[in-house]
Specification:
Structural class: alpha+beta
CATH superfamily of the largest domain: Alpha-L RNA-binding motif
Shape: globular
Largest sheet: 9 strands, mixed
Order of helices and strands: EEEHEHEEEEHEEE
CATH topology of the largest domain: Alpha-Beta Plaits
Number of strands: 11
Distance between the termini: 6 Å
Helix content: 10-25%
CATH architecture of the largest domain: 2-Layer Sandwich
C-alpha cells in the first residue's frame, strides 16, 4: 500500500520543502519524512498538490507520458470570446511548442465553494473578470498562464482543483488529507 497526501497549497507557498531565500515552503505545513511531490504548482498559484511515499506512483502521477488530467479554475482579466475559448480548446502556440487540446468551460460566476485569496486580487473597476475551467494533460512550465495570455486573457488567479481522480473537495488552504491506495 502506498500513501498519498492531498494538500491545498496556499497562495505564496513554494512547491518544495526548502528555500535559500526564506520564503514559505511546504515544510511549514507538512512534516512527513519520505513524501515527495508529484507535480508542482507555481508560488502564485493555489490548490491541489499530491505527495506520495511511493516513487513509482509519483512517476505515474507526474510524468507527461501518463497524461494525467489536471483541472484548473482560472480568474482571467476580460470576457472570453467564443474564438478565444476555441483556441484554448484546440491548443495554443507557445514559444516552446503547441499545447495539446484542452477541455474549456466558461463559468457563469466564481464557484461558491472557493475561498477568498489572501492577499486579495487587485480589481480594476473598468475591466471585467471571468472564470474559466480548463482541463489539460500536460505540464509545461507556467503553461496555463501562458495559454490564457496567448489568447488575450491574462490569468489573475489560478487554482488547481483536481489531478486525475483526486480532488480538492472541501480542503481549505493549508489543509492536508492522507489516503492509502493500492498500487
Amino acid at each position: 500500500m502506498a500513501e498519498i497526501l492531498l494538500f491545498n497549497k496556499p497562495y505564496g507557498v513554494l512547491s518544495q520543502f526548502t528555500d535559500t531565500e526564506d520564503r514559505p515552503t511546504l515544510a511549514q505545513w507538512i512534516d512527513r519524512p519520505g513524501f515527495y511531490l508529484a507535480g508542482r504548482l507555481d508560488r502564485d498559484s493555489e490548490g491541489l498538490v499530491v505527495l506520495t511515499n511511493d516513487g513509482a506512483l509519483q512517476q505515474r502521477i507526474s510524468h507527461p507520458r501518463y497524461k494525467k488530467e489536471k483541472t484548473y479554475l482560472l480568474q482571467v482579466e476580460g470576457v472570453p470570446t467564443a474564438r478565444a475559448l476555441q483556441q484554448l480548446a484546440d491548443g495554443v502556440h507557445l514559444k516552446d511548442g503547441r499545447t495539446g487540446r484542452a477541455g474549456v468551460r466558461l463559468l457563469a460566476r466564481k464557484p461558491a465553494w472557493l475561498w477568498p485569496r489572501q492577499p486579495p486580487i487587485r480589481q480594476r473597476r473598468k475591466i471585467p473578470v471571468s472564470w474559466i475551467e480548463l482541463v489539460i494533460s500536460e505540464g509545461k512550465n507556467r503553461q496555463v498562464r501562458r495559454m490564457t495570455a496567448a489568447v488575450g486573457l491574462p490569468t489573475l488567479r489560478l487554482i488547481r482543483a483536481s489531478i486525475g481522480d483526486w480532488q480538492l473537495n472541501k480542503l481549505q488552504p493549508g489543509e492536508l488529507q492522507s489516503l492509502e491506495i493500492k498500487t
